[in-house]
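EI: anyone free to look at a 122-residue chain?
SC: sure, send it
EI:
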Amino acid sequence: MNRIFRSIALLLALEIAGMSGCTTSTKEELELTTYDPMDDHQKIAAYYRLEAARFRQTAEELSMRVLLYEELFGPTSDWVTGARLLGQSYSHQAKQHEQKAHEHLQLLEEQGGGSHAQSNRQ
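SC: here you go
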């Protein structure tokens, strides 16, 4: 009985942490008056990196849920399988977003903004 209450408390803590992560978002206004394409690639790359970090965080939270669901429902449960597949999907999306960010930084360097990209990353 104590084990069940402990598991439920852990599940609730994970849910609260996940919900607070969704509500604390900082939006940065895009500068629409600039005509410098290097700024565009820099901002797009920053966006993709931020999204990749969010996807990785969600994947990590889901891997913690997998462990909890295994303990609650058993390793062959649909809850475990679903959480595992969802975590893999978020992990895959994070990798894709990192790749997109890398592509935009490469475009930035090809356009002659390599030093511009380096100074903004620091």
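EI: The radius of gyration is 20 Å.
SC: 👍
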